[in-house]
Amino acid sequence: MPSSKNTLEAIRYDRSNGVLEVLDQLLLPLDHVYISVHNVDQAWTVIRNMNVRGAPAIAIVACLGLAIEIKGLLFQDKAANLDMQATVDDIKNKLSFLETSRPTAVNLKKSCDAIRGLLTNSSGKLLGEILLSIEEYAFQLFQDDFNVNKAIGKCGANAILDVPQEGSEAKSSVCVLTHCNTGSLATAGFGTALGVIRTLHELGKLERAYCTETRPYNQGARLTAYELLFEKIPSTLICDNMVGALMQTKPLSAVIVGADRVVANGDTANKIGTYQLAILAKHHGVPFFVASPISTIDLSLRNGKQIPIEERNPVEMKICGCPMRACVPPAGKEIFFIV
Asked: 183 lies in which domain range?
């Protein structure tokens, strides 16, 4: 399984036994609990509820959830007795359903479209062969994401180190800022933007990584800070509204974030709050980088205004305790979360 030494695993998949588990990120950092996913419905639920999140991880869990159902048919040797067209139509319906779980991240749609392509180009194949090709695609998606993240980490680290600072051609060490969570918890392992930070640390070139709380769900405070501490990377957690003061007082070499979708003109959709960071970075002359795999690029859209933006239930801002648990207060009693 994809993994990196000393990193957290957001997704565990035992291909031989058809077992899929996702780390419940609603409970981090206090509890380390895995949720078993046995079918598409459960995959949709853990994605929608944000038990698992991060554009690459969402696509992987959705496809593996479908693969679990398919492996059930293959293990039980039911494929030979199923109606071809009815089964294909059922899979297409499941793909459409999965796409409704989190609409902003394009990785999910691209992966579902790739599976639709396997169904469309299935002329002359037995149903069992078609099902196996889908399961193989899902597994390969899981495997490839880790390797892509390692490459992003290397390229991103080199790009940041190559940016001159105050007339210097090279930096002995850098300070960087990141937003939300883009590490092993958001991917198959290693991460995108946080993978770049991890690579800088491995190279001995990272002085300090700063991460924001990332309201309203606190992915930075609960997840990124947790990952950085877990891997003993020098880091500091700051409030979302401290970024301007940080840039004014502390020389930063770069801001680096991930992305849910990058469109044809370069516009990027990422976690709420990224826009403010970009403006502040421009004002203070801090280079701003977006780290994402090719699967996050959507050339079908001309600009960012065409990106579908997910809007969450406002009750998630009206709860007491950890907002990620998304508990619904009793009818008529709104309990506000105050810090």
From this structure: 150-298
Q: What is the CATH number of the domain that holds 36?
A: 1.20.120.420
Peptide bond into 216 cis (omega under 30): yes
Please tell me whether residues 107 and 185 are part of one structural domain.
Answer: no
33 pLDDT higher than 90 = yes
State the average pLDDT over residues 309-323.
Answer: 73
Distances (CA, A) of 125 to 74, 89, 122, 131, 318: 15, 16, 6, 10, 53
Confidence of residue 75 (pLDDT cuts 50, 70, 90): low
**pTM of this structure:** 0.82
Three-class SS state of 257:
strand
Last residue of a domain, one of 122, 145, 168: 145
How many angstroms separate the CA atoms of 339 and 337, rounded? 7
Count how many Cα atoms sit within 13 Å of the Cα of residue 94 in the half-sphere of its side chain: 25
Strand (E) or helix (H) holding 219: helix 219-219
Q: Quickly tell me which residue has 């038990």 as its tokens.
A: 51
Helical packing angle, 193-202 and 127-162, nearest 10°? 60
| 167 pLDDT more than 60 | no
Residue written as token pair 């970009």: 278
**Active-site residue 298, yes or no?**
no
- Pairing relationship of beta strands 11-14 and 19-23 according to DSSP bridges: antiparallel
Domain boundary, last residue among 124, 145, 166: 145
Which residue in 83, 260, 267, 298 is the catalytic one?
260
How deeply is 205 buried, as exposed, middle or buried, from its count of CB atoms within 10 A (0-12, 13-18, 19+)? Answer: middle
Mean pLDDT for the stretch of residues 1-5: 55
